[in-house]
Specification:
Elements: H1 6-27, H2 30-59, H3 69-105, E1 109-114, E2 119-122, H4 124-129, H5 142-145, H6 149-157, E3 164-167, E4 175-183, E5 187-194, H7 196-233, H8 238-269, H9 281-298, E6 302-307, H10 317-333, E7 340-348, E8 351-358, H11 365-368, H12 380-385, H13 392-401, E9 408-412, E10 416-424
Parallel strand pairs: 6-7
Antiparallel strand pairs: 1-2, 1-5, 3-4, 4-5, 7-8, 8-10, 9-10
Length: about 425
């Protein structure tokens, strides 16, 4: 399509005025001719301007009005622009409708809201699960509809790596999992899933394990008592002594496993930490040190503790003791004779730092990610020899999760391992 330049417009004007100029000069009525031509010229332009106005504002037809010269060119330009916009709008509408259809098909509640909390859109499930009313709640702030303080804090934290579990705002018996994702520019996507049955199953499993462990404790104690009696009354019969020794070892292992299972289910099911309860870390670490030195002496190991006696944290002493003791005893168990174990408890910028370093066998990299899984053992037979159940590091992981902390493991085969964690500043007292 041709584009009109200033030069072309000038020539077009010349084409109108030149014959008039000649005619005017020849007849001697130059001014009159020029005036009439200018009036006609302006009227001609007004005519097409009016047509354009009618087309854009009155008829709104998709068909072009007939135009001439530069006006025809302008009409086609505007028409093409309209077509492009219409196409883009249709594409956008079909993307939005596909997104909405997809969101409606999801088994989860979906809410789109702006960074400041203003609700843009929600699907039908959000209306059932969260009690939103659509379209009445459009533009409402999400914190006015989900008022739980934990949700408000989660929203403001801007750290959405982990989901948040909350009781449903409209049904106390339901547990919902809230997950926020940054979406488009300055928008957020909230996905809410009903996890009541999963949490119930988890709870049932925990109760079952806790009950079974508890029930096993009594018969095991009775068994241990009888084994002790048998050991005392045993004659010099080698076969009998060996049998009693194996029985004793196996019941001791089973007792340890039951204890570990009970500790794990207690820590897993523990409520949030009590911020008023301060733990005497110095006394706790001295106790663990004494036990570790005694155990280490049997393997001629050097066990050293470097402890900041003034550094203490709040919370549940049982949980912190379990985490620390499991890491220290593992270091002793998985370090050969004459090895070295170093324990550090000190203040760092981010909080309270605990670290156990050993010169043991080390762990191959492919195992490291799995170590905190229940019953995961690198070498089951080796672990059995040390009396391990594969639950120790799982206990550590759960205890640390209550402190918003994670276990950090560094290890090199043949060189040794380092297990550490940091308890954040807000738990220090
Ligand atoms: P276990 O009761 O078997 O020790 P844990 O959960 O405490 O179970 O540890 C899991 C596995 O991690 C152990 O079986 C062992 O193979 C490995 N492990 C733990 N601590 C150490 C360590 N300090 N050095 C080498 N391996 C370790």
């Amino acid at each position: 399509m041709k584009v009109y330049t200033w030069k072309q417009l000038f020539w077009a004007m010349c084409l109108v005025y030149f014959p008039v100029l000649i005619l005017g000069l020849l007849t001697g009525f130059l001014l009159e001719f020029l005036l009439v031509t200018t009036v006609l010229h302006i009227a001609w332009h007004y005519y097409f301007l009016k047509k354009l106005n009618d087309w854009l504002w009155i008829s709104k037809s998709t068909r072009l009005p007939p135009g001439k010269s530069v006006w025809e060119h302008a009409y086609i330009g505007i028409h093409n622009m309209q077509q492009r916009h219409r196409k883009r709008r249709n594409n956008l509408a079909s993307v939005i409708s596909r997104f909405r259809e997809g969101s409606e098909a999801l088994p989860d509640a979906v809410v789109v809201f702006k960074k400041d909390g203003e609700i843009v859109w929600c699907n039908r499930l959000a209306q059932f699960q969260l009690g939103f009313k659509w379209p009445d709640d459009a533009g409402e702030n999400i914190t006015n509809l989900i008022r739980h303080p934990d949700f408000v804090e989660y929203l403001r934290s801007d750290a959405y790596n982990e989901p948040l579990d909350l009781v449903s705002p409209i049904n106390n018996e339901k547990v919902l999992e809230f997950r926020i994702m940054p979406y488009a520019k300055n928008q957020r996507l909230l996905i809410v899933r009903d996890v009541t049955s999963y949490r119930q199953m988890d709870e049932n499993r925990r109760h079952f394990v806790a009950n079974v462990s508890h029930e096993l404790r009594t018969p095991l104690t009775v068994l241990q008592g009888y084994i002790e009696m048998l050991a005392m009354s045993a004659q010099d019969d080698k076969m009998q002594l060996k049998t009693i020794q194996v029985l004793d070892q196996q019941t001791a292992r089973m007792c340890a496993l039951v204890e570990q299972l009970m500790t794990l289910s207690k820590i897993e099911g523990a409520a949030t930490l009590d911020f008023h309860e301060s733990i005497n870390m110095s006394a706790l670490l001295t106790q663990v040190e004494n036990e570790a030195v005694t155990l280490g002496r049997k393997k001629s190991q050097t066990v050293t503790f470097k402890v900041d006696p003034k550094l203490s944290v709040v919370g549940d002493e049982m949980q912190v003791r379990s985490a620390i003791a499991n890491l220290v005893y593992n270091a002793i168990n998985y370090t050969p004779e004459h090895g070295t174990i170093k324990v550090i408890w000190k203040r760092v910028q981010e909080g309270a730092y605990f670290c156990v370093m050993d010169t043991g066998d080390g762990i191959a990299p492919e195992h490291i990610l799995h170590l905190t899984e229940r019953f995961y053992r690198v070498d089951a037979s080796r672990s059995r020899d040390t009396g391990g159940s594969g639950l120790g590091l799982s206990i550590v992981k759960h205890a640390l999760s209550h402190y918003d902390s994670k276990l950090h493991i560094e290890s090199h085969v043949g060189e040794g391992s380092q297990f550490s964690f940091i308890i954040p500043d807000n738990y220090i007292c």
